[in-house]
Structure of Ankyrin repeat protein:
Amino acid sequence: MSESGSEQGGTRLEPEQIFDLARHGGDVLLDLVDAGLPVDLADEAGNTLLMLAAYHGHAALTAGLAERGADVNRLNGRHQSPLAGAVFKDSADVVRALLEHGADPEAGTPSARATAQMFGRELPEPGGA
């Protein structure tokens, strides 16, 4: 793996392509992390792979990144948390996955709890239906 990209099967991936995998739910991203890609890799705006996967509604990828050690509470450059992004997008499966992996409903500005209140929603309990 080089500083500016990752190699998978001889194909070089540029950083933006790696972030696109998170945005589009590419399961190969987990293989790249398993092969040494930093699990908390972030773009120029401070959005980690987990943040992008969560914001774009990919619950299985979000959980897979969390299981590989991604920081579920890492804030981006705008002080937003992955959980608040998932609440904003009304992605219940992602919210549940983040809570099950220890996401803090009070992290960020606005917090996930405040975001839920803004939209008249309630946060589920971790492991709840």
Observations:
- The mean pLDDT is 90.
- The beta strands are 6-8, 11-13.
- The first strand starts at residue 6 and ends at 8.
- The radius of gyration is 14 Å.
